[in-house]
């Protein structure tokens, strides 16, 4: 019988090859992402008690979570952090990227490396370092206040501690975000700049009409990363807590809250609930940013 | 705020989830016990030690290495592998995770007295009565034995004790021209004198430490926590607690104590250079000073705790036991090692030689111990002071069954007093409220 002309079903060999490419990813993805996610959802349906052990609780943990002042206190704090720190950090990163890309900066590669360097410092070390500088008896803060003769900066107070954390985070991650934006700027072909120059566009016009649209996608990505980072704020306050226990509460951020509930409070299930609730909020926010950010006519 | 950071945090979160999941897996058999034939006689334990095998021992005590060396000399067939758990807090977390995972559970583990209930109530510790350890009661001081035997079982053997004492820097006291305070009123006056002499110096440091605060309440005669396993009573306004809070309030209000958390590098430095002139801590402190503050050689002395009205009164601060987890693999051998570790003369001698403060009456009362002249303390017979301190410890103190958690939320509530110079009693009331609600959630009947 002659072979049937036209479309053939994909051969088993081809599809096997496809699967063999995808499988390593799928295995890791299932093991490291799906499994813990499903497990924590499962866990969040239980209740742990020192007296009485673990019992099924349905959605009771979610009901508790939605009216838990500690959780919303922490969530509000990281929300505020997100609204203030992220725009500042990304603006600084953008300015730095534009400056380095402008070609008018002497020692361009020095600045690029210098700005990026804090990112290479391990987070814990960075916080310890800043934690020491903030000290108003021995640290840089003390020297600064001595110099001006009054308490100009006082990071270890209720009023300033969140700002102090924002400062550390900004210091750590401006360089990284600058690099993302700078690499987006590098993809703009030279011809466009030449054309703009022929049209008589000045530098500001070039920035506004060519460079900013060019980094838009990168900016969306950087924003999404920053939203995730803000909502998962943990390292910085958790290390500062050791220096200033009364300034950073056990529910200062949702992650600190979940951590304390799990490892000290014997409330693994409720901690899982907190993690899922915060995960959902973060996912929704990131999605909204992505939708808005990629809209053609925005 | 980058991928790497998110990943790092995500890893942390995942570890949390993983620990969480594992707890759920094994949650069911928490109270199940380790099978039918639990327990053994002294002969069986001895035979097991002779026969040998290997066990794992988790501890943060610096004396452990020396003790294990001695042990392996006595029982060459037993191999003890030592895991350093760094400190009490990390030790708890590590043990909790191992038990939840049902894997890598140590055979013998060091636990602070105050943390015993949190493991015991969940059925995670072995009742050592079955190994005949009830016969060892007379070896230990009443307060340490009371800490390991509760809720109808024996959950460990006391390793050390920490009756409180006032450790002070004689040089600073001489410079300022003050005497060692014997009452808390005098203590406050000394604190003022030191501050006046040099505003950068303090008599003491404290930034709201729950362990210190509870010990101070204990010393003042308070018994704010009472529990019989199911019913818990919390009264952080009882006579003793109020007495402590009223005494302590001026120290906070007048900024007489340095807000410097203990155990930090700055703390050790401040103890060495005279910035902090004294600490009121457990009798294990000489070892810490010798080890962590070499600059203080010859300048430190020890005195009994100041009193409220001239009557000697004292409390324990810290101190720990070694226990055998319910999920330990080699319980018989573990029991043998534990018994040797905390009741044999060789082991306790080795413990004392390296600065440990024992819990055994015989050693606390021995001539050799009491007569020891510490070079670090300028030749002072420190154990005379510390031994007497052990005898004055107030009876009837109990911790909460969830003391670690209670401590973790201390700075949210009571700790605010240190920060805002607000009322310590109000802060303690807020702490009580949080604990009542947590305890009720955890299935206890809580009065408070």
UniProtKB/TrEMBL annotation, chain B:
Signal peptide: 1-24
Coiled-coil annotated spans: none
SUPFAM superfamilies per the UniProt record, alphabetical: Periplasmic binding protein-like II
Signal among keywords: yes
Keywords from the UniProt entry: Signal, Sugar transport, Transport
InterPro entries: Bact_solute-bd_prot1, SBP
Pfam hit, one: SBP_bac_1
Keyword match Transport: yes
PANTHER family linked to this entry: ARABINOSE-BINDING PROTEIN-RELATED, BLR3389 PROTEIN
Name of the protein this chain belongs to: Multiple sugar transport system substrate-binding protein
């Amino acid at each position: 019988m002659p072979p049937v002309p036209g479309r053939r079903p994909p051969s088993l060999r081809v599809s096997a090859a496809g699967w063999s490419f995808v499988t390593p990813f799928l295995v890791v993805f299932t093991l490291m992402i799906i499994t813990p996610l499903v497990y924590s959802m499962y866990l969040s349906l239980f209740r742990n008690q020192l007296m009485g052990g673990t019992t099924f609780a349905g959605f009771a943990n979610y009901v508790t979570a939605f009216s838990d002042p500690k959780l919303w206190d922490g969530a509000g704090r990281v929300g505020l952090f997100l609204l203030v720190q992220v725009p500042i950090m990304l603006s600084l990163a953008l300015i730095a990227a534009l400056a380095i890309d402008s070609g008018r900066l002497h020692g361009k590669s020095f600045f690029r490396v210098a700005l990026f360097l804090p990112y290479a410092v391990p987070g814990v070390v960075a916080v310890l370092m800043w934690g020491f500088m903030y000290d108003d008896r021995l640290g840089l803060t003390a020297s600064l206040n001595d110099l001006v003769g009054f308490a100009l900066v006082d990071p270890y107070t209720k009023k300033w501690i969140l700002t102090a954390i924002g400062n550390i985070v900004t210091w750590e991650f401006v360089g990284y975000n600058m690099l993302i934006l700078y690499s987006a700027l590098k993809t703009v072909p030279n011809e466009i700049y030449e054309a703009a120059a022929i049209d008589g566009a000045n530098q500001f016009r070039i920035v506004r009409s060519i460079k900013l649209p060019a980094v838009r996608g990168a900016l969306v990505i950087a924003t999404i990363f920053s939203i995730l980072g803000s909502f998962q704020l943990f390292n910085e306050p958790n290390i500062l807590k050791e220096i200033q226990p009364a300034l950073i509460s056990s529910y200062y951020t949702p992650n600190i809250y979940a951590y304390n509930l799990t490892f000290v409070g014997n409330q693994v299930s409720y901690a899982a609930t907190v993690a899922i609730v915060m995960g959902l909020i973060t996912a929704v926010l990131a999605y909204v940013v992505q939708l808005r950010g990629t809209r053609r006519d925005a | 705020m980058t991928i790497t950071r998110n990943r790092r945090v995500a890893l942390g979160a995942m570890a949390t989830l993983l620990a969480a999941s594992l707890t759920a897996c094994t949650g069911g058999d928490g109270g199940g016990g380790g099978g039918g034939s639990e327990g053994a006689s002294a002969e069986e334990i001895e035979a097991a030690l002779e026969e040998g095998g290997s066990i794992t021992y988790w501890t943060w005590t610096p004396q452990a290495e020396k003790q294990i060396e001695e042990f392996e000399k006595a029982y060459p067939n037993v191999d003890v592998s030592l895991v350093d758990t760094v400190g009490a807090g990390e030790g708890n977390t590590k043990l909790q995770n191992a038990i939840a995972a049902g894997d890598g559970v140590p055979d013998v583990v060091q636990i602070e007295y105050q943390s015993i209930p949190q493991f015991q109530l969940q059925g995670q510790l072995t009742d050592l009565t079955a190994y005949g350890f009830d016969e060892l009661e007379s070896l230990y001081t009443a307060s340490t034995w009371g800490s390991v035997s509760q809720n109808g079982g024996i959950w460990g053997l006391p390793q050390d004790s920490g009756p409180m004492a006032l450790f002070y820097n004689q040089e600073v006291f001489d410079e300022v021209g003050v005497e060692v305070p014997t009452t808390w009123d005098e203590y406050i006056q000394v604190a003022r004198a030191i501050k006046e002499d040099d505003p950068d110096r303090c008599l003491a440091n404290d930034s709201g430490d729950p362990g210190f605060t509870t010990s101070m309440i204990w010393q003042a005669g308070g018994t704010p926590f009472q529990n019989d396993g199911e019913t818990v009573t919390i009264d952080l306004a009882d006579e003793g607690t109020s007495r402590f809070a009223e005494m302590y309030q001026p120290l906070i209000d007048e900024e007489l104590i340095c807000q410097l958390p203990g155990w930090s590098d700055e703390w050790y430095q401040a103890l060495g250079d005279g910035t902090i002139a004294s600490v009121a801590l457990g009798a294990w402190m000489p070892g810490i000073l010798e080890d962590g503050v070499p600059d203080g050689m010859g300048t430190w002395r020890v005195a009994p705790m100041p009193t409220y009205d001239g009557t000697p009164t004292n409390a324990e601060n810290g101190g720990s036991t070694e226990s055998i987890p319910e999920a330990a693999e080699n319980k018989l051998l573990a029991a043998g090692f534990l018994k040797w570790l905390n009741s044999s003369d060789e082991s306790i001698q080795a413990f004392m030689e390296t600065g440990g403060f024992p819990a055994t009456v015989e050693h606390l009362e021995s001539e050799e111990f009491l007569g020891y002249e510490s070079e670090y303390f300028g030749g002072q017979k420190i154990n005379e002071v510390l031994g007497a301190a052990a005898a004055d410890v107030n009876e009837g103190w109990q911790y909460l069954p969830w003391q670690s958690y209670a401590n973790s939320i201390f700075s949210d509530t009571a700790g605010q007093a240190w920060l805002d110079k607000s009322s310590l009693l109000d802060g303690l009331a807020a702490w009580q409220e949080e604990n009542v609600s947590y305890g009720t959630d955890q299935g206890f009947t809580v009065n408070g």
